[in-house]
Amino acid sequence: MNYWESHLYIWLGLPLLVFFARVVDVTLGTLRIIFISRGKKYIAPLLGFVEVFIWIAVVAQIVRGVNDLFTYLAYAAGFAAGNFVGIYIEDRLAIGTQIIRIIVSNGAEALTDHLHDAGYGVTQVDGQGVNGPVKLIYAVVKRKDLPLVLTIIQQTHPRAFLSIEDVRSTQEGIFPMRAHTSDGTFWGRKSK
Question: DSSP secondary-structure letter at 145?
Fold first, then answer.
């Protein structure tokens, strides 16, 4: 390798290699942590194996004697970008289940009817708020269905108080099955 090729590798090639390897490794690490928190115990170790393999290969390149700032910056930038990419991918996968708590002071029946009509199981409980009686409505939904459920809530009761939490696991319940209609849209149907 001549002088220019070695400098091109040190100043451009190696930092790019480190950056992209770090993006992949941290993306896998971010997904691994998310899968662990969602109870996906079989895919997490596989992601961890590939993640650590890439990490050790990148660190070996850096420790090999390259002491330039660009490689270190590429390492840090790859870490930051990998977190972003991992969260983006997990958000697009929308794996898991969430519970939505809805608190309304009136109009609860219309909201529960709309959610039932869309195929979602709903539990309604009487409660007492600061300003008087309220209804607490609980719905457990797949994360992929969350935008549709939020749209139903906003259209039916735009001033409803909402809280949404991840659920590690569920057993039983009513979740809509999705099927394509002839025009390409989806329709929901109750299923157990």
Answer: G
